[in-house]
Amino acid sequence: MAGEVIVDALPYIDHGYDDVGVRESALAMVEEECRRYRPTKNYLDHLPLPTSSPFETPLMVNEFERIQNRLPMETLSMKRYELPPPPSGKLSEVSAWQESIENSMAQLEHQWVRSLNLELMLDYGTEAWKSYLEVFTAMQAKAQLHLQQLKKDIQDVNWQRKQAQTQAGERLRSLEAHWVLLVSKNYEIETECVELEKLVHAAREQLQRLAPPPTENDTAPTPEHTNGIDQDVVETNGSDSNTNGGEENAETKDSEGESEKPDVQEESSNESQ
Fold first, then answer.
1. More confident residue, 109 or 270
2. Longest Cα pair distance anywhere in the chain, in angstroms?
3. What is the 3-state secondary structure (H, E, C) of the chain?
4. Is residue 262 part of a domain?
5. Tens digits of per-residue pLDDT, 75-113?
6. CA atoms of 93 and 30, how far apart (whole Å)
7. In Å, what is the CA distance from 176 to each residue of 60, 125, 182, 185, 188?
8. Does any domain span residue 106?
9. How many other C-beta atoms are found inside a 10 Å radius of the C-beta of residue 106?
10. Does residue 220 lie in a domain region?
11. In this predicted model, what pLDDT tens digit does every residue of 138-179 receive, in sequence order?
12. Number of domains in the chain
């Protein structure tokens, strides 16, 4: 995948995060990335706009329109709590007095409802509050259980990550040790090869210095064809073999002469008789 970033950090086995200069180096990398990144105004155009209409009430829609049109907020009307008499010009009109009476009756009904709510709260408010507290306590206990489960899941994930990184660290250390061993062996082999090449080169130079200069009629093989063996050594071995062969022939002749002498002595003794 193009642009994919592979995170190869193993914080459970890696060391050196607390060393001097590591934090400064990381912050410098972050600053460099921030300098290179140039955000555009339309980098969120590919995302759809959030839909808030299912959560908007008519009152919220009207309020949003007022804010959008920059209109002032309407003040709270206290007219329903007032008991004004009819205007001075309508004191003789029955309808004006009728509206005032209806307004006063509505105010009285409202106050009666408030007093009734207070009486009901005194009678049943305690039990209702206790019931609310029980529901709230059950909700809190359920939330606590959910929180504990989330913490346990997080702990399990961290333990699995630590276990995986520990196993990976052992594997990496084993592979690193094996790699160091192979590199060391390769270095030793290369060193030995260089030394052997030096010895072979020195031996060839020595053989070339010891070998007699070639003549026109000389058809002897060169040291390269004799696998580095000098011709003089071969000739010396040949002369030694000839010498040894002559000595063996002389010894054979001496033994034959000695074997012939007793026969001569026997013949001389027979003649004397």
1. 109
2. 213
3. CCCCCCCCCCCCCCCCCCCCCHHHHHHHHHHHHHHHCCCCCCCCCCCCCCCCHHHCCHHHHHHHHHHHCCCCCCCCCCHHHCCCCCCHHHCCCHHHHHHHHHHHHHHHHHHHHHHHHHHHHHHHHHHHHHHHHHHHHHHHHHHHHHHHHHHHHHHHHHHHHHHHHHHHHHHHHHHHHHHHHHHHHHHHHHHHHHHHHHHHHHHHHHHHHHCCCCCCCCCCCCCCCCCCCCHHHHHHHHHHHHHHHHHHHHHHHHHHHHHHHHHHHHHHHHHHC
4. no
5. 888 877 778 888 888 888 888 889 888 888 988 998 999
6. 82
7. 66, 74, 10, 14, 18
8. yes
9. 13
10. no
11. 999 999 999 999 999 999 999 999 999 899 889 999 999 999
12. 1
Is 241 domain-assigned?
no
CA distances to 201, 214, 233, 243 from 229, rounded to whole Å, are 14, 16, 7, 22
By residue count, the chain amounts to 273
pLDDT digit string (tens) for 207-263? 988 887 767 665 555 544 444 444 444 444 444 444 444 444 444 444 444 444 444
What is the residue range of 139's domain?
95-183
